[in-house]
Amino acid sequence: MRIPALGPTVYILAVAMVFLAALVPFLPGFAVTVLVRLLIFAAYAYSINFITGLTGYVSFGHVVFVGTGAYALGFAVRTWHVAPLLGVMLGGAAGLLLAVGLGAVTLRFRGVYFAIASLVTVLAASSIVVIVPQLNDGQGIIMVFPFTPTAYFYTAWVLVAVQMGLTWWVTHGRLGLGIRAIRGNEDAAKRLGVNAAGLKLFLFSVSGLFAGAAGAVSAWNTYGVFPDVFELTTSLQMLAMIVVGGLGTLLGPFLGAVLVYVPSYYFLTSASNIQLILIGALVVFFALVIPSGLVGGLRRYVPSLRRILE
Amino acid sequence: MVDAGSVLTDLAFGLAAGVLLGCVYAVIAHGLNLIWGVAKVVNIAHGEFIMLGAYGAYFLSLWFGTNPLVAAPVDAAIGLGVGLLFYYGILHWELRGKEQMGLESEMVTLVATFGLSLVVSTVAQLLWTPNVVGIQWSPGVVVAGPVSFSLGGVYVAIASVGIISLTHLFFTRTYLGSGVLAHSQDIAATQLMGINPTRAAAVGTAIGFAVTMAGGALLTVWLPVGIFPLMGALWAPISFVIVVLGGPGKMWGSLVGGLILGVTISVLPTFLPPSIGLSVSTAVAMLILIPVLLFRPEGLLR
Q1: Does pTM surpass 0.80?
Q2: Do A239 and B237 touch (CB under 8 A)?
Q3: Is the pLDDT of residue B100 over 80?
Q4: So what's the ipTM on this one?
């Protein structure tokens, strides 16, 4: 198998990630938790990028995987007293299973129908979670963990780094061609022998796996899981990150995560989520004016960056 | 041991309440249906405009003491303006000059209206606080045998069916309306007939918004406490399910879908333990969508 050459974007991301990882031992615990939240955002962004960014299937329901992963960790810790890291793996497994089940049905719907089906699963999931006795009837699960910011950090770091690698792998070579064909014209792609259903389900499952694992890390980091993990706002933030950063790109989700996280952190203390006005306005602007996001826009308007950014 | 008579009474009450509730569901979904049918756009921010309609009714009752039935036409008039603003401010950017709605445009409008929903709901939270408010209006009670229900619900159901019938008359009996209806059926052919596609889509969107906001006002009768800036997150999915059930762009589809959903949500809890009734019926009402999309993607109506 021919291995495609690594572009400059790969090196930029690798340097940034290694720099972050090397920096952490020298930072105070508080600063590390700020970075952990950023990495969790980035993990969310890369996860939704697999399906919405690469294939163009707009998912408003990714918070369902995040919430399922978080609850899987909460359930495992409460019932079996497992180590949190194992809980994160279980969260990923739960997200994967749910994605395979949901995807097998909803990925048959195209365009707005997929989007609507994904949106209604959020309301269904948040109604169901409050009546399951095993999940403490909607009163949430509070967990007691020691404060280990470096452990959260490296777990979230691995999730982001692996997803960056996977994103690069699926966008290059044979798989990437198939995915681009699906995004361009799914019926034509099928005629040409692209296994569209299989490819979409594969991407959706990968997406669910990492969204679930990232949700579990988030629950670990906040010492609890409550029904509000299924809040639609999280889904919308995930989508906003990749729309602003650049749908289906390698660098875009990371840029988007930074752009959405910084205002969220800045307005953390305000009760009314003022940052959502800014994020929403950015989304409207990018969707209508630069639908390919920051990365796509830069590639289009700054020709010298075309060979660098992907 | 459950008394059979009381179960029957519950069932009759649930059915009657479901039909009344279903009419209101139908009218709030009808606004979405019109925009979907005419402009071919699914407005993710639909719930936020229901919320604006509900707040319109709330402030009218606060300042002038009017009831939601009076507020509905006022909201509808405001909705016409908001709809035009929405069309020319947002949709026109993407739809201009398009004769077919491609997947790319669908994605752009989905994402843009979702951004708008974040902005509108957050601004509403800033202006009106996240607290829940409501309108106290109880014009009386109807007693029919063993069941009794609020007269307000009956008035609102009649008004809802009236609004849907009015839009039907507008689209089938007026010159402007039939132009818009033609646009919704075939954009290219309509252009050949000399109809301005932008204007047709803008009129359709404006009417859709008027119906949505009037529906938001009527809905407040069912929400003695339940008007708050994030209420759209509940009512938008309900509207989506209703429109898909009936079939997007079908005039009476909203009524059929609304009645099905209303009856489901209000009858199902009578068969379930009270602690889980509401949650299960909400989940079922949402997931009805999936078999419908699988087996009758064009909606239940022909």
Answers
A1: yes
A2: no
A3: no
A4: 0.91
